[in-house]
Amino acid sequence: MSALVIDGLTVVFGAFRALDGLSLAVDPGEVRAVIGPNGAGKTTLLDAITGITRPKSGRIHLGDGLDLTKRSEAEIARAGVRRKFQKPSVFPALTVRENLSLGCGPGCPAATRSARLAAALSETGLEGRADVPAGALAHGEKQWLEIGMVLASEPRVILLDEPVAGLSDAETARTAEIIGTLRRPDRAILVIEHDMAFVEAVADRVTVLHEGRTLFEGGMAQARADARVIEVFLGR
Ligand code: ADP
């Protein structure tokens, strides 16, 4: 059974089809990368999954059958679907610890909050930075903090929007390690990224989007050898 299922999803902007009957299923425990040229529909896909953009047709549901298609952004987040946007949106005046505590959400019991805080600090490797204001962190650390805030909500689906944009090689390698530790048998991770070496390091499979449709699905090594993928994307 898949953890996240996109079934025949079409999103239109006026007469333009940003997603055109897209189907995609992410397995539990899988890290899936969605790659493709600018304008392929990657951001639109994440916007549709998170309820920011309403599809014209098609369905989005979780592995247990929960239909997200007509839910609000808040309901989708409550169902355990969490997104890390490209630009870190941490609270600069709050410490790393305080930011991570927010990830547990309002009404979160104190014991749960502290357990999740400890787990998020350790999974992101930010233990030594717990009392530093988020505004004083390096760009890479801010990205990791935001991944930690997503984690503290115990998500079933994690959506990552260009997590290594603007990071150094060392920070990129560290981010790949962190994402590796986020894998769980009951969790699906979907990542949009332009850095192909990073994608190769983190993703089990890649979906190559082109003009709102799937051009290719499979391993990164096969994607690199696929004539259509080379023509529309990798060969450019
Ligand atoms: P990607 O993330 O793969 O670069 P996007 O999902 O951002 O692609 O965009 C897909 C296409 O949809 C692009 O041609 C873009 O111009 C168009 N698009 C995205 N959002 C809107 C919008 N709000 N209004 C009109 N066109 C849009």
TrEMBL record:
<feature type="domain" description="ABC transporter">
    <location>
        <begin position="4"/>
        <end position="236"/>
    </location>
</feature>
<dbReference type="InterPro" id="IPR003439">
    <property type="entry name" value="ABC_transporter-like_ATP-bd"/>
</dbReference>
<dbReference type="GO" id="GO:0005524">
    <property type="term" value="F:ATP binding"/>
</dbReference>
<dbReference type="InterPro" id="IPR051120">
    <property type="entry name" value="ABC_AA/LPS_Transport"/>
</dbReference>
<keyword id="KW-0067">ATP-binding</keyword>
<keyword id="KW-0813">Transport</keyword>
<protein>
    <submittedName>
        <fullName>Urea transport system ATP-binding protein</fullName>
    </submittedName>
</protein>
<dbReference type="InterPro" id="IPR027417">
    <property type="entry name" value="P-loop_NTPase"/>
</dbReference>
<keyword id="KW-0547">Nucleotide-binding</keyword>
<dbReference type="InterPro" id="IPR003593">
    <property type="entry name" value="AAA+_ATPase"/>
</dbReference>
<dbReference type="Pfam" id="PF00005">
    <property type="entry name" value="ABC_tran"/>
</dbReference>
